[in-house]
Write a structure and sequence with these properties.
Length: 269
């Protein structure tokens, strides 16, 4: 090493000046957004002071749990909730599968098709299921139909986007081989695409059904059927023992749905 090199003062730094300024700008923006948010929502500290007392009072009103209320109202409402989730998931496939094909670049290479598909997929995901439920309750009136359509339109973006990504990630070797033999388009889909996409398809649909069970449990709060209606009626009447029974039923059915989905995925995938 030369004498000139030995006299050089070497200084190592992790980030450049530009990177440091960018990080500080992000931190500053976060703090400003946090302060503005706290000022906008107008948090009242007094509500936090007596929160433990209010929680204890609420739980004391829920006890003893009205187990007989399960047979009276909760059971039928839970079956209706499961039906809403299942039918909503099945109706979703009618719209999500074609949109997934349109959005997959290795099936359709038209940019216009991709933009149209992305528009509907993003629109579906950007609107909450409760908002969809309010819309369909206004159109079709309170009941199961509004709940099914709310679940379906909310799920289209989720299933369609993930399915399109799964289609784009397949190995195109078998697809190109089928096309080279002159196989028709339907045969290419069934023999080339479907065997590779099938595990992801069932995984996505089962996962979304599990989510829909949870979401359909609260749609009744806006009149879209299911256990939410029973829960809302009990809360409006201050029947907290019945509310406790409804909450326990929702918790149990969500856990059972999760266990069912996990076991089905183990056997199918």
């Amino acid at each position: 090493m030369s004498e000139v090199d030995s006299n050089i003062d070497r200084h190592w730094q992790r980030f450049t000046l530009k990177q440091k300024l960018s990080r500080y700008a992000v931190y500053l923006s976060f703090m400003i957004a946090l302060i503005l948010s706290l000022r906008t929502v107008q948090v009242i500290p007094e509500f936090f002071y007596d929160a433990p007392e209010q929680i204890a009072d609420l739980f004391s009103r829920m006890w003893p749990i009205s187990f007989e209320f399960y047979q009276i109202s909760v059971h039928d409402a839970m079956i209706e909730t499961l039906n809403i989730a299942t039918l909503g998931t099945l109706v979703t496939l009618v719209f999500a599968v074609p949109l997934a094909f349109m959005n997959a670049s290795n099936i359709v290479d038209s940019p216009w098709s991709h933009w149209v598909a992305k528009f509907f997929l993003v629109s579906s995901r950007s609107i909450n299921s409760l908002v969809w439920a309010l819309l369909f309750v206004a159109i079709f009136g309170p009941g199961v139909i509004a709940g099914v359509l709310a679940i379906a339109f909310r799920s289209v973006g989720f299933i369609g986007k993930l399915l399109a990504e799964a289609i784009e990630e397949i190995n195109m070797g078998s697809v190109e081989a089928l096309r080279a033999t002159g196989a028709p388009w339907g045969a290419v889909l069934l023999k080339g695409y479907w065997p590779q996409v099938k595990p992801a398809f069932f995984s996505i649909v089962l996962f979304r059904w599990d989510i829909n069970v949870r979401e359909s449990a609260v749609l009744g709060l806006v009149g879209a059927g299911g256990i939410g209606i029973v829960l809302n009626n009990s809360m409006n009447l201050f029947e907290w023992q019945q509310v406790a029974m409804s909450l326990i039923a929702i918790f149990v059915i969500v856990i059972l749905a999760e266990v069912l989905v996990v076991n089905i995925r183990k056997h199918l995938i």
